[in-house]
Amino acid sequence: MKQIIDRLRQNRDLSDGDFLTLLTEIGEAEKAYLFAVARTVRQSVYGDDVYIRGLIEVSNYCKNDCLYCGIRKSNQKVSRYRLDEKTILSCCDVGYSLGFRTFVLQGGEDGWYTDERLVAVIRQIKARYPTVAVTLSLGERSEDSYRLLFEAGADRYLLRHETIVPEHYQKLHPAKMSLKNRIDCLETLKKTGFQVGCGMMVGSPFQKMEYLIEDLRFLQRFNPQMVGIGPFLPHSDTPFGEQSPGSVELTLVLLSIIRLLLPSVLLPATTALGTAAEDGRERGILAGANVVMPNLSPADVRMKYLLYNNKRSYGSEAAECLNDLKRRMEHLGCHVVVAKGDYKYMP
Ligand code: 5AD
Q1: What angle in degrees, to the nearest 10, is found between the helix axes of 209-222 and 248-261?
Q2: Structurally, how many domains does the chain consist of?
Q3: Is 325 left (phi over 0), alpha (psi -120 to 50) or beta?
Q4: Which residues have a Cβ under 8 Å from the Cβ of 221 and sit 6 or more positions away?
Q5: Are 317 and 295 in contact (CB under 8 A)?
Q6: What is the pLDDT of residue 311?
Q7: Residue 32, in any domain of the structure
Q8: What is the rounded distance in angstroms from the CA atom of residue 121 to the CA atom of residue 137?
Q9: Which residues contact 177 (CB under 8 A, 6 or more apart)?
Q10: Which domain, by its residues, includes 304?
Q11: Which of 55, 58, 139, 307 could bond 107 through an S-S bridge, CB–CB 3.0 to 4.6 Å?
């Protein structure tokens, strides 16, 4: 096992057989070794810095009906909201004074957010805070739209691919969504000039280990600047409400593997990981992650943006509790920094 891990670090690659062994047969001591190697590689690129991103959940309206997601269109129990420009800007004001230098505007696919409205809010944020990065996570849009958003000043875009296996994608999404469209969007985003993030859920219904290996192959090919992964967690008002959650342990192993495949990737310890285990975020950092994304949304909407049951938005998940998060990171030998936290291109 140790040789496989060393080979992964050396070659940034493994055979399918070795990936499978690593994912299915790794023991506790070997995991500790894998995590330590992943931390060393993270350290060589980013030192002990942990980047924070202020997450602003701008809308829980969504035209899509993804079978796993709590804010899917057919969930009638959701109390829907969207934030207007003024509210988003005041979230940024709070965030900026707390030390955030990246704001992530995330939301369902909400037609109210026209290019015009988004361009206006991006310009406002950039005018007020010229040194921050704006990250968007607003789903699939047209090439023209992505271009306008980029030209308005948005720097990064997150769009998880969810799974790279078409038949699997089809089982997680309604018929009118397609993996092809998702990948086309990712390619367009890259071509437009964004720093791009993709990623998959771990342990989503119908997933097989072989599929995760395909996901890793896709990450190698696409070479994104950011990768977001977290365990699938059921939401009771969705068709997958009775399915079992994804494994925290497997998520951690995958985080380490991704760090070794893509040494300079910006890799968050996600809210899903922090929800699935009390110490999930810390363990994510210890497995090689280097980003956390505390919640900056207005307090009264946080409980409405529930992608899965028990989603955390308080404690160290909350921007107001940044000191708590900082302390937790210092315990791990890491430091939360006030920085834009761009991707580091390595020779
Ligand atoms: N469990 C875990 N992650 C989820 N997401 C959506 N629903 C769930 C769920 N039930 C993730 C998806 C999406 C991101 C915003 O949240 O990967 O891309």
Answers
A1: 30
A2: 1
A3: alpha
A4: none
A5: yes
A6: 87
A7: no
A8: 14
A9: 64, 66, 169
A10: 48-337
A11: 58
pLDDT tens column, 301-322: 998 999 988 888 776 667 678 9
CATH number at residue 216: 3.20.20.70
- First CA to last CA distance, the chain: 29
How many residues does the structure list for the chain?
A: 347
Using a 6 Å cutoff on CB, does residue 272 contact ligand 1?
yes
Cα 79 to Cα 151: distance, rounded to the nearest angstrom: 33
- The mean pLDDT value for 20-48 works out to 98
pLDDT digits (tens, 9 = 90+) for 37-51: 999 999 999 999 999
pTM reported for the whole predicted model: 0.97
DSSP 156: E
Q: Is 162 in the pocket of ligand 1 (CB under 6 A)?
A: yes
Contact between 154 and 134 (Cβ < 8 Å)? yes
Among 126, 138, 141, which Cα is nearest to 96's?
126
The ligand 1 atom at the shortest distance from the C-alpha of residue 200 is 17
Residue 24 falls within a domain, yes or no? no
Three-state secondary-structure class, residue 104: strand
Q: Rounded to the nearest 10 degrees, how much is the dihedral formed by the CA atoms of 51, 118, 309, 63?
A: -150
The two beta strands, 102-107 and 54-59, are parallel
Which residues sit opposite 335 in a β-bridge? 49
Q: Which residue has the higher pLDDT, 213 or 316?
A: 213
Does 22 reside within a domain? no
φ and ψ of 249, to 5 deg: -60, -45
Cβ–ligand 1 contact at 201 (below 6 Å): yes
Which stretches of 114-270 are DSSP H helices?
Answer: 115-128, 143-151, 166-172, 179-192, 209-222, 248-261
Residue 240 CB less than 6 A away from ligand 1: no
